[in-house]
Amino acid sequence: QTPPMIAPSILSADFAKLGAEADAVAGADWLHVDVMDGHFVPNLTLGLPVVQSLLKSTDIPIDCHLMIDDPGRWAPGYAEAGAYNVTFHAEATDDPIAVGRDIRAAGAKAGLSIKPGTDLDPYLEILKSFDTLLVMSVEPGFGGQSFIPEVLDKVRRVRSLVDSGELRVLVEIDGGINADTIEQAAEAGVDCFVAGSAVYNAADPAAAVQSLRAQATS
Ligand code: DX5
Ligand code: ZN
């Protein structure tokens, strides 16, 4: 297992100064960018033009989390723009393998995400076509919600398959990760922890990243 990674989510940042908000977490492993279309989730955030601007203003690898319908149409654009990892939702497409293939062909790592209520089992077989599995630990759509510990069963399952060499995928968790919840997620076998409010609502976001990473390591 790789050392724990922390991916601050700019959903909880000030959208009027995203460049400065990225600089405020300079020690982060990935910068998590939540793209919401107001259809797949009942909230609307930002799209490709904003991601293109962010890519120009930060050296932190960008982790795009697409909470959108029709990811096959939009996901490759984020990869072409230079995002490091592009994740879309399994619930949003009938052909996740094709979408993942297009993301990789466009030059990014491909991620598959599942909502808290979505079973992992039907997707285990196709995970070998992905670089990242993003396990949602809140209903996608909003920051600041409470962690749903039941999803850790899915993390444990994937962790054991990765540890036994049957799968090669980075396990990422998103939603409600903070000082109170990160240790149980780390114990279950998460590699990469998304944290929005726990980082950007902190007085010192960079220090919050370091302290979350230390907690995940212990
Ligand atoms: C929610 C987003 C998350 C969100 C997490 O749909 O996918 O990335 O920013 O926010 P917190 O860490 O506050 O739960
Ligand atoms: Zn997210």
Automatic annotation (TrEMBL):
A divalent metal cation binds at residues 32, 34, 65, 174. Substrate binds at residues 9, 65, 141-144, 174-176, 196-197. The active site is at residues 34, 174. Keywords: Carbohydrate metabolism, Cobalt, Isomerase, Manganese, Metal-binding, Zinc. Its cofactor is a divalent metal cation; Co(2+); Zn(2+); Fe(2+). One of its GO terms (biological process) is pentose catabolic process. It holds the Pfam family Ribul_P_3_epim. It comes from the Bacteria. It catalyses: D-ribulose 5-phosphate = D-xylulose 5-phosphate. One of its GO terms (molecular function) is D-ribulose-phosphate 3-epimerase activity. The keyword Isomerase applies. CDD domains: RPE. Binds 1 divalent metal cation per subunit. Its EC number is 5.1.3.1. GO terms for cellular component: cytoplasm. Pathway: Carbohydrate degradation. Catalyzes the reversible epimerization of D-ribulose 5-phosphate to D-xylulose 5-phosphate. PANTHER family: RIBULOSE-5-PHOSPHATE-3-EPIMERASE (PTHR11749). Belongs to the ribulose-phosphate 3-epimerase family. This is Ribulose-phosphate 3-epimerase. The gene is rpe.
